[in-house]
Design goal:
Elements: H1 2-9, H2 20-48, H3 54-57, H4 62-70, H5 72-85, H6 101-111
Length: 144
């Protein structure tokens, strides 16, 4: 949960680097929250009998849609920081619009290891020692 909160604290921060753990834990928590909100909404719709109250039942999906809308900016920010960590510009995100191949390439980038040492976007957050000229970014302690 610390990784999720770290991303939310950096709500619209597109600079710096994000480790694989930070990116994937954020994605996991997002998926769980989305499934829970959607499941509750669909469950309430089913309990009401959605055929009779179709317009009213959709209102129970509104929290899920509002959450997904609120999470767009931090999702883009952590994605750009993840690309920075692999040594790529955030503009590589737009490769996802290339049908079939684009999302696969982007997924490979997300799974790629961090670029060792500092790069154009800052020091490697996995390295515990400070690099001269770069301030050490705060990151959550490893989970025990």
């Amino acid at each position: 949960m610390d990784w999720y909160l770290k991303v939310m604290r950096q709500y619209a921060d597109f600079s710096g680097r994000a480790r694989r753990m930070e990116y994937w834990m954020f994605a996991l928590v997002n998926a769980v929250i989305g499934v829970v909100l959607g499941g509750v909404g669909i469950g309430v719709m089913a309990a009401l009998g959605s055929t009779d109250h179709a317009g009213f039942g959709v209102l129970f999906l509104v929290p899920m849609f509002l959450y997904m809308l609120a999470i767009i900016i931090p999702s883009l920010a952590v994605t750009v920081r993840r690309l920075h960590d692999t040594g790529r510009s955030g503009w590589w995100y737009f490769i996802c619009f290339v049908p079939i191949v684009g999302p696969i390439i982007l997924l490979v980038f997300y799974f790629s290891a961090s670029q060792p040492g500092p790069n154009a976007w800052g020091p490697n957050p996995k390295e515990p020692y400070p690099v001269p000229g770069y301030p050490m970014p705060p990151y959550p302690p490893p989970m025990a």
